[in-house]
């Protein structure tokens, strides 16, 4: 596998298959090969996803890192000791800054109800008319 065109994928559920990973990563670039492996002396699985071009590596990381499959977020990173990893590390602080600015910092509006003892609606005129005629 060419390291410059390869992503490291980890933290995925046992239900995730080679075919599912192939389908997912095909969405971000043309694939050459996917290998799902196990760590030595462990049941922990990881995958190496090789693309046909280097540009797809960074796009895959930006697009798929953190995506949940079977309620477990994927970890998608460039293969270690590559130029792609250097680019990823250099842009990490910018990505984190962007993520922090996208996090809502506002508090709920004053109309937000913390008091659940009272109904969230007021009795409208229809209900009052209905009650006055002996219904309900």
Write a structural description.
Residues 5-81 form the RRM domain. This is RRM domain-containing protein. Pfam families: RRM_1. Residues 100-111 have a biased composition (Low complexity). Residues 79-136 are annotated as: Disordered. By secondary structure, this protein is an alpha+beta fold. The chain has a domain at 3-92: Alpha-Beta Plaits. It has helices spanning 18-26, 55-64, 83-102, 125-132; strands at 6-10, 31-38, 45-51, 68-69, 72-73, 75-78. The strands form 2 sheets. The chain has a 4-stranded antiparallel β-sheet with strand order 2-3-1-6. A hairpin with a 2-residue loop joins β4 and β5 (72-73). It starts with 5 loop residues before the first strand and ends with a helix. The model is unreliable at 105-116 (pLDDT under 50).
């Amino acid at each position: 596998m060419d390291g410059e065109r390869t992503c490291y994928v980890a933290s995925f559920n046992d239900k995730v298959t080679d075919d599912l990973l192939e389908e997912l990563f095909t969405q971000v670039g043309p694939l050459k090969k996917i290998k799902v492996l196990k760590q030595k002396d462990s049941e922990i699985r990881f995958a190496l996803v090789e693309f046909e071009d280097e540009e797809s590596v960074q796009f895959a990381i930006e697009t798929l890192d953190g995506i949940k499959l079977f309620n477990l977020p994927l970890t998608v990173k460039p293969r270690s000791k590559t130029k792609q990893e250097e680019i990823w590390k250099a842009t990490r602080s910018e990505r984190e800054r962007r993520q922090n600015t996208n996090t809502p910092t506002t508090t709920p509006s004053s109309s937000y109800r913390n008091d659940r003892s009272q109904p969230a609606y007021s009795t409208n005129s229809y209900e009052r008319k209905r009650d006055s005629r002996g219904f309900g």
